[in-house]
């Protein structure tokens, strides 16, 4: 129609253009006037109707060309349709347009008209379509609605229409489309609706207060193609009269409170059905086995002789069916097997029911199939080869069923496959190769009995982000290349995997996703891949290369060493030199003598009593660095100048070309390790908190405030000394500055204080100190030693980080790990908070650890609550 109109204009306009207004006929002028009157009562914030004007000087536009106006040619030019949707209009809908004698369509949808239903529009005697959808229309539907006698399409959806649906609605005999969805209607559907025999679309969805049974007269509407009753308050059974809905294409009853069985009635109306959704109700019973499988249905219908007046062989062929959604109900019995082979079926959702049955090989005929969700049922049998032949399948979710056997080799062949969840079935055998499914995002095979290796082809699936292979019987290595993927979840726990875990998989994820594989090793795991044995066969070439490099290095080092040996012999015959920053009455010879006579206390620290009665602590270091004595003195001085109330003072040092003795002030109470493991008086919680805070502050001082910025790099409870007031004194910090990086690395053996990334990251970072600090915090909170021989096992040492995490995971009670010797109602909450900080600090991923300043702030928060609430008992909830 629009086309022919334009055609006509293009012929007439060249002649009439200059004399436009004079050539406008009387009726055209009338129409124009009516439109302008209609416009005057409308608010138009976007000026969408600015072209609706007869005064526009430059180029006056024929009103048939105005925004939203369509004209009809017969008998002459008349406005037939006004479509002003989505223009932010508000104001009054004037009935002046009812003077347009040929107006049939009025669409004011998606605007802001805020008023009751404009009944005066019933004056528009020719109006066939009234679309007021998505406005702010309020109030009830009055009986006078029946005056819209010519209406064929009434769309009042998505407004605030309330009250009961009036009986008189049934007088709109011409109605073909009635959409009252998404309103606030109440009561039930009046029986008069059954008289609307021309209805093609009936939408009463999303009316929460429309609480009633589905009236059986709906079944009389045999022209109905769309019946949308979802998300309302319908309860009771689906009426058997639905058998009469032979034209039905879309049936949506989801999210109601429907009960009973659907079978017979639905089956009957399946003939032309494109979409069936009865999901999320309380429906039960079983579907007759013949549903949607043409032939058998002849038998079905003959036996259950209840389909009044229907041709038996037309039932249930379902040749048009695209969606079948029956999920979240209580259906049981055999799943209609014919459904799997329908030519147009796209979506099958039957999850959370109690269906039995299997997926037939003929599923390959369902070439349009995109989505299958049948989780949490009792499906069984094997996955057929036919499934892998479907090229449109993007989701296959069948977890929690009783499927078994081996997956067919082509299981993952659909090129658009994105989501696969077949967890918790009884699958066995190998995981097939994944070659074609480059779009796979999520794969869950958990809780089956898969054997063999993790297919390396997984690493080629670049968008794979969710991989759950947990709880199977997989063996072998975790493919190295998997670490190139960007996983949000990677769970291979409880398999029989072995060997080194690829680095970024260890560091990027909590270790619990690897648990239950005793053969796996890597930082943060029970085994830390001591030798390269396991990775040797895999990366044999690399290892060999490494070996060669090592040999070369060793050779070079020994050459350098022997050269240095000779040189040093010549240079430093004189032996000991010393430098004191504190008036110590001590000569190098005395020191040497005393050192020979005593043995180190704790860790490589000698406590010596001077003739003056003073006590000093001496730390012995190997001097393997080739720097001048001047440079060495400068280095030690840098560290000795640190002054903080929580650092141990360096009183001086002695050195030869082979050894360095660092002299520290002596602290009364030994090391934190000693105090924690002594059987006697326990450090109370407030003291422990003070120690934690002091240590954190000292660490922050040396790394942030002191210039040059230094890292501790060797924090342990043996290096935290306590003075007579139990004020902590950090010692042994920044020794790398004195002995040099290489020697430092050999002095420091990896322990459970060492952050996991230390093994491969060359650069020392604050995060590593934070990790060590976290381990100390764990010792303070649990009262356990960071490392000790594990009970029962011989020789294996217990890593406190793992121990605590395991315990928390197992028992779900963090309170379990707290030091029972000092635990009280008063301090439990604070200890738990501190435990949280400790766990954060010992995060496997360095970036996840808090900064020292954040740690201090958190600890200060806790300790301020200690000082104010020590006497208060916690209020029990
Ligand atoms: C524009 O329309 C109004 C209302 O119909 C009419 O009074 C006026 O004369 C028209 N102006 C022109 C320029 O045609
Ligand atoms: C039209 O309405 C939309 C939705 O409320 C709003 O975001 C937009 O700003 C409005 N435009 C004008 C010009 O008023
Ligand atoms: C009507 O619209 C068409 C297409 O937008 C345009 O070519 C024609 O000039 C317009 N006619 C008038 C009278 O404005
Ligand atoms: C009414 O308008 C809305 C929004 O513009 C549209 O989605 C809907 O299909 C229309 N109703 C009918 C019955 O055409
Ligand atoms: C379904 O019925 C229950 C009570 O039987 C009621 O609480 C619930 O709101 C109903 N749901 C709907 C969508 O009407
Ligand atoms: C119908 O059912 C009978 C017995 O139930 C069976 O013998 C017959 O083969 C069936 N016919 C068809 C066409 O399936
Ligand atoms: C499994 O389906 C049943 C209904 O058959 C339902 O009651 C149950 O909640 C579902 N389980 C899960 C985990 O959704
Ligand atoms: C796979 O299915 C299991 C069990 O139904 C469910 O817990 C899990 O969340 C599903 N995984 C995904 C990625 O949907
Ligand atoms: C990993 O898998 C195990 C075993 O199936 C399970 O217990 C654990 O909750 C899973 N972890 C995550 C984060 O899904």
UniProtKB/TrEMBL annotation:
Ranges annotated as spanning the membrane: 543-566
Entries under SMART domains matching the protein: LRR_SD22, LRR_TYP
Tagged with keyword Glycoprotein: yes
Example of a GO cellular component annotation carried by this entry: membrane
Ranges for domain Protein kinase: 566-862
SUPFAM superfamilies the UniProt entry points to: Protein kinase-like (PK-like) (SSF56112), RNI-like (SSF52047)
Primary location: membrane
Membrane topology note: Single-pass type I membrane protein
InterPro entries membership: Kinase-like_dom_sf (IPR011009), Leu-rich_rpt (IPR001611), Leu-rich_rpt_typical-subtyp (IPR003591), LRR_dom_sf (IPR032675), LRR_N_plant-typ (IPR013210), LRR_R13L4/SHOC2-like (IPR055414), Plant_LRR-RLKs (IPR050647), Prot_kinase_dom (IPR000719)
Superkingdom classification of source: Eukaryota
Pfam families in the record: LRR_1 (PF00560), LRR_14 (PF23598), LRRNT_2 (PF08263), PK_Tyr_Ser-Thr (PF07714)
Protein name: Protein kinase domain-containing protein
Organism listed in the record: Arabis alpina (Alpine rock-cress)
